[in-house]
Amino acid sequence: MKNKAIAAVLSTLADYMELNGENPFKVNAYRKAARTVESSRVALADHRDQLEQLSGIGKGSAGVIEEIMATGSTTLLTELKEKLPSGLPDMLVIPGLGPKSIYTLYQKLEVTSIAELKQAAEEKRIQALSGFGPKKEQKILEGIAQFKNRPNRRLLNEAMTVAEAMRAELESNQQITAVQLAGSLRRSKETIKDIDFVTATTSPQAIADWITTLPLVVEVVNHGDTKVSVVVSVNGIEMGVDIRLVRPEQFASALHHFTGSKEHNVRIRQRAKSMGYKVSEYGIDGEDQAEMKTFGSEEAFFKMLDLPYIPPELREDRGEIEAAEKKKLPHLIEQAEIRGDIHMHTVYSDGNDSVMDMARAALAKGYEYIAITDHSRSLRVASGLSIDELKEQWEEIDRVNEALEGITVLKGTEMDILPDGSLDFPDEILKELDVVIASIHSGFKQDEETMTKRIIEAIQNPYVHIFAHPTGRLVLKRDPYHVNVEKLFEAAQSTGTILELNANPRRLDLNDEALKRAKEEYGLKFTINTDAHITDGLAYMRYGIATARRGWLQKEDVINTYTLTQLRKVLKQKQK
């Protein structure tokens, strides 16, 4: 069991203990143990006999950690879950409301759910409690509204998890001759409301009946012979899934129809009309045709309209029709063209695996190089490295490079841009690094002028190669900070700074629209990185590639498609 997973259980245990009003010293002991475990640079599972030697780990917490490693949980937490009202922990999702406050509300007002919390606040009963007051009561109401108003959408990776499980079920039925994702998920939009499939079958009614019996299906919304709508649950993720049932000869036309955005499809129909055709999900009809024309592939469908194949990610009516007409569609970047990942974290800061673990995982993916970029010293919440710790890591990287063949590990850092625009490490340290990434992790509420000036000052440093997750957003969770994007792009252009497309599905930053604009209007270069904190996190590259394709990026636009020699040359150019 990984350190981060152990720490998560310990933190949850501390929350539940505080919800139960237990001794603050005992609660804090488990919180301290969680921090110690998460920041430890050795895997606790491999050093069980040394637990009590770690700062903040006593005999009691060591025993709990042993139990967590053996079972994945602890009886202390199980007992608390059984003891506390089931709706009490749900209130932890309300912004600004911690377990201590929830305990007080439970004891004083018998509040046991978000609904009861809202009622108490609306009746102004909370402000009378010691330590609360009218302002905090209002913030609680705002927090509940913020939680309730979250979009009913899922991250791209969550939707893909559900879709891949459902697709496997559909492909298992021999009466279905073809299955393909459609809709916004096939276009790789960053958030997904519903999942769409197009299936080809000669037995639509039988397939429709069979779909409703699948073990993944938790609710049947619509049951027809051309469309089945269900709610599917996979690993606790519930999503609506629409399955279109068409005859095999209609498959390509239906796939096109149910893939493109509404705007793209309007443009296709307009083009068809100008050529004397009529397009539907079943094929293309025309005055001079005896019957509707159907197709064996989407390529053949587009050819009928005198267009080259338009990749699904581009079907948004953002210039793809015009580019296709001129035969100037980009050759979009492909995952096989990625040679390395140059933003990731290890146990030295807030990662879960060692330098060697990350290198081996990257080697298994066929990468030529990676960069280890643990956090800098000011980001204490992520156990940022001091200069001495950074130099210690350099020595470990040297050892890994000596031990492993076929991959090169570059020395890097993800360095904080401090609120005043200064950098977290001095130039004499930065010039020793292969890859320097600058990023914002604090002061998100600065005004646009201050934030823009802060970022530009940082990327003007000759040793800063990359500006990471440039707008600071978290998809469905946090809006971008205020920054003048034009000035940011201009500064990147004038300094030769590379902008990152962070492939973590929670970030996807820069987003597709910004990528397209930065490329076409400013000629900028990019890097697609996973920001992985665990070996499994390297798999996020697929979502970065999908977003890059939506942003019209090609291989030559992305520096980690370059060979190691080419990459080093590009990074050195910043210092000239």
TrEMBL record:
<dbReference type="GO" id="GO:0003677">
    <property type="term" value="F:DNA binding"/>
</dbReference>
<dbReference type="InterPro" id="IPR037160">
    <property type="entry name" value="DNA_Pol_thumb_sf"/>
</dbReference>
<keyword id="KW-0488">Methylation</keyword>
<feature type="domain" description="Helix-hairpin-helix DNA-binding motif class 1">
    <location>
        <begin position="49"/>
        <end position="68"/>
    </location>
</feature>
<dbReference type="GO" id="GO:0004527">
    <property type="term" value="F:exonuclease activity"/>
</dbReference>
<dbReference type="Pfam" id="PF02811">
    <property type="entry name" value="PHP"/>
</dbReference>
<dbReference type="InterPro" id="IPR022311">
    <property type="entry name" value="PolX-like"/>
</dbReference>
<keyword id="KW-0269">Exonuclease</keyword>
<keyword id="KW-0540">Nuclease</keyword>
<dbReference type="InterPro" id="IPR002008">
    <property type="entry name" value="DNA_pol_X_beta-like"/>
</dbReference>
<dbReference type="GO" id="GO:0005829">
    <property type="term" value="C:cytosol"/>
</dbReference>
<feature type="domain" description="Helix-hairpin-helix DNA-binding motif class 1">
    <location>
        <begin position="89"/>
        <end position="108"/>
    </location>
</feature>
<dbReference type="InterPro" id="IPR029398">
    <property type="entry name" value="PolB_thumb"/>
</dbReference>
<dbReference type="Pfam" id="PF14520">
    <property type="entry name" value="HHH_5"/>
</dbReference>
<keyword id="KW-0227">DNA damage</keyword>
<dbReference type="GO" id="GO:0006281">
    <property type="term" value="P:DNA repair"/>
</dbReference>
<feature type="domain" description="Polymerase/histidinol phosphatase N-terminal">
    <location>
        <begin position="340"/>
        <end position="419"/>
    </location>
</feature>
<dbReference type="InterPro" id="IPR050243">
    <property type="entry name" value="PHP_phosphatase"/>
</dbReference>
<dbReference type="InterPro" id="IPR003583">
    <property type="entry name" value="Hlx-hairpin-Hlx_DNA-bd_motif"/>
</dbReference>
<dbReference type="GO" id="GO:0140078">
    <property type="term" value="F:class I DNA-(apurinic or apyrimidinic site) endonuclease activity"/>
</dbReference>
<feature type="domain" description="Helix-hairpin-helix DNA-binding motif class 1">
    <location>
        <begin position="124"/>
        <end position="143"/>
    </location>
</feature>
<dbReference type="InterPro" id="IPR043519">
    <property type="entry name" value="NT_sf"/>
</dbReference>
<protein>
    <recommendedName>
        <fullName>DNA polymerase beta</fullName>
        <ecNumber>2.7.7.7</ecNumber>
        <ecNumber>4.2.99.18</ecNumber>
    </recommendedName>
</protein>
<dbReference type="InterPro" id="IPR016195">
    <property type="entry name" value="Pol/histidinol_Pase-like"/>
</dbReference>
<comment type="function">
    <text>Repair polymerase that plays a key role in base-excision repair. During this process, the damaged base is excised by specific DNA glycosylases, the DNA backbone is nicked at the abasic site by an apurinic/apyrimidic (AP) endonuclease, and POLB removes 5'-deoxyribose-phosphate from the preincised AP site acting as a 5'-deoxyribose-phosphate lyase (5'-dRP lyase); through its DNA polymerase activity, it adds one nucleotide to the 3' end of the arising single-nucleotide gap.</text>
</comment>
<dbReference type="GO" id="GO:0003887">
    <property type="term" value="F:DNA-directed DNA polymerase activity"/>
</dbReference>
<keyword id="KW-0234">DNA repair</keyword>
<keyword id="KW-0548">Nucleotidyltransferase</keyword>
<dbReference type="InterPro" id="IPR003141">
    <property type="entry name" value="Pol/His_phosphatase_N"/>
</dbReference>
<dbReference type="InterPro" id="IPR010996">
    <property type="entry name" value="HHH_MUS81"/>
</dbReference>
<dbReference type="InterPro" id="IPR047967">
    <property type="entry name" value="PolX_PHP"/>
</dbReference>
<keyword id="KW-0235">DNA replication</keyword>
<keyword id="KW-0378">Hydrolase</keyword>
<dbReference type="InterPro" id="IPR010994">
    <property type="entry name" value="RuvA_2-like"/>
</dbReference>
<dbReference type="Pfam" id="PF14791">
    <property type="entry name" value="DNA_pol_B_thumb"/>
</dbReference>
<dbReference type="InterPro" id="IPR004013">
    <property type="entry name" value="PHP_dom"/>
</dbReference>
<dbReference type="Pfam" id="PF14716">
    <property type="entry name" value="HHH_8"/>
</dbReference>
<keyword id="KW-0239">DNA-directed DNA polymerase</keyword>
<dbReference type="GO" id="GO:0042578">
    <property type="term" value="F:phosphoric ester hydrolase activity"/>
</dbReference>
<dbReference type="InterPro" id="IPR027421">
    <property type="entry name" value="DNA_pol_lamdba_lyase_dom_sf"/>
</dbReference>
<keyword id="KW-0832">Ubl conjugation</keyword>
<feature type="domain" description="DNA-directed DNA polymerase X">
    <location>
        <begin position="1"/>
        <end position="316"/>
    </location>
</feature>
